[in-house]
Design the sequence.
């Protein structure tokens, strides 16, 4: 995958190249770039209260599936 992205960046690969699993290498690179800095930037922009509310909502969502499985 890295070799294919490097080849595309240097112009050695055709621009319509697709990764073996069908994904677009350029989109993968952009998605990874945003993913690497997105969490830190979002955490920096939220207040302590907002982060706590988001964490509580995530915990409720995670535990809801466990509780639902036990009910079956």
Sequence:
């Amino acid at each position: 995958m890295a070799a294919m992205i490097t080849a595309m960046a240097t112009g050695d690969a055709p621009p319509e190249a697709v990764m073996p699993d069908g994904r677009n290498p350029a989109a993968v690179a952009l998605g990874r770039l945003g993913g690497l800095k997105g969490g830190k930037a979002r955490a920096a922009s939220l207040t302590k209260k907002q982060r706590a509310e988001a964490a509580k909502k995530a915990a409720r969502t995670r535990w809801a599936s466990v509780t639902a499985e036990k009910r079956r």
The mean pLDDT is 80. The longest helix spans residues 48-71.
